[in-house]
Amino acid sequence: MTLFQDFGITSELVIILAIDLTIAIILLTLMRYLQGWTAKVDSRVELAEKDNFAFGISTAGAIAGLGIVLTGAITGEAADSFIVEAIGMSAYGLFGLLLIKLGRYFHDKVALNEFNKGEQILKGNISIAIVDASAAIATAIIIRAVLVWAEDLTLDTFIAIFSAFAISQLMLVLLTRFREFRYAKRNNEASMQEALVQGHKAVAIRHSGYMLAMALSFNAASHFIIYSPQAYIANLMGWLIFSIIMLITLSVLIKIVKKLVLSNIHLAQEVEQQHNIGIATVELAISVAVALILTSLMY
């Protein structure tokens, strides 16, 4: 024990870490089964017997998203007691899980409203599964940023978290509508959502990159917006204004960088007409890289 104490590790801290880890494992396990319950299927059958790759990708996104959220719930500071620590971790974890499911529901019904996502995934539509998983991860990145931004464990905290979450979902819808507009303009008014239903993986990958980039840029807001528990309107407007500014800035920078990195390549033709997954993946990488750099500059 002396060696551990030299590094500042006490028996109380070890117990706290064990509590957090145990709750995290339980919640991750719950998310896997929740995927099946939500779709009214046996997740084991879909994953292992039917070998439904789309269901696996969707489930992977949900589990990864919850893991990201839980990193925001674990502050690194021990609570006053083991019970308070367990309650706090469970509350934040369950609230994060609820927001991920709510975000996916909102994304399905509002952002991608031209098809039934659940039916498409059960049919094995990998393109839609990629977008679904990316939306879950993007939502989780945003929730984590808000969890780190907010303080304490009160009703005001949850109101602040939900307010920022609502703004983030609005921005994801606006982003999707803008990408749909761009796709239709280049493809004789064709529907991007219909392309996803038809299994257009390249479009799915590229769109996923934009969603992840937007979520990462959302992180920067937590460093500029001062958390005030009861300033409901101020918190809401702060997230809204900053998110719009970041989305516009991000879109402009991504366009410039893509022009330089992928010069002499007709991106719309390669990705949208020729289904070039390779170039779509490079576009995703560029979007995420620009967002990470932009966010780092804001710290």
Describe this structure as you would to a colleague.
- This protein has 299 residues and is mainly α.
- It is built from 13 helices and no strands.
- Helix 4 crosses helix 5, helix 5 (82-111) packs parallel to helix 8 (155-186) and helix 10 (201-218) runs parallel beside helix 13 (277-298).
- The longest helix is centred in the middle third of the chain and has 32 residues, at 155-186.
- The radius of gyration is 20 Å and the shape is globular.
- It starts with a helix and ends with a helix.
- Number of DSSP strands? 0
Q: Quick check: average pLDDT? A: 85
Strand share of the residues? under 5%
Q: From the alpha carbons, calculate the radius of gyration and give it in angstroms.
A: 20 Å
Number of helices: 13
Order of helices and strands: HHHHHHHHHHHHH
N-C termini distance: 38 Å
Q: Which class of secondary structure composition applies to the elements?
A: mainly alpha
How would you sum up the global shape? globular
Main beta sheet: strand number and arrangement?
none
Low-confidence stretches: none
Instruction: Estimate the helix proportion, in percent.
Output: over 70%
